[in-house]
Inverse folding.
């Protein structure tokens, strides 16, 4: 069982930046993918950004050019650098880790962007 611990959420003004971290209790070296999803009030959970095991990064159109996902193998940690934040980025952000045959979620971290 892999545990995921997200951190870095908070309140920020529009135009500001935040960096989210997701620390995994297991290795992120042999993953299928690792990434971030978000869920705003009254909306479905949606993909924000993910990195495949082969190193390909995929972003939602709404965050391209503003967000950057990266990983640090030595710390089994994935980061989401969020710049030029907008009020519509307000949501609970969840870390997701996938191995072949298994899927893990963190408990989420709240990001609130004020206008």
């Amino acid at each position: 069982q892999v545990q995921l611990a997200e951190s870095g959420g908070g309140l920020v003004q529009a135009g500001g930046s935040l960096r989210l971290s997701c620390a995994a209790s297991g290795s992120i070296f042999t993953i299928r993918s690792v990434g971030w999803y978000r869920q705003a009030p009254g909306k479905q959970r949606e993909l924000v950004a993910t990195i495949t095991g082969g190193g390909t990064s995929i972003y939602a159109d709404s965050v391209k050019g503003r967000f950057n996902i990266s990983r640090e193998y030595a710390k089994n940690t994935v980061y989401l650098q969020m710049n030029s934040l907008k009020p519509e980025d307000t949501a609970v952000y969840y870390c997701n880790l996938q191995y072949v045959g298994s899927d893990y979620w963190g408990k989420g971290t709240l990001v609130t962007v004020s206008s």
Observations:
- DSSP finds no helices and eleven strands in the chain.
- The first strand starts at residue 4 and ends at 7.
- The mean pLDDT is 94.
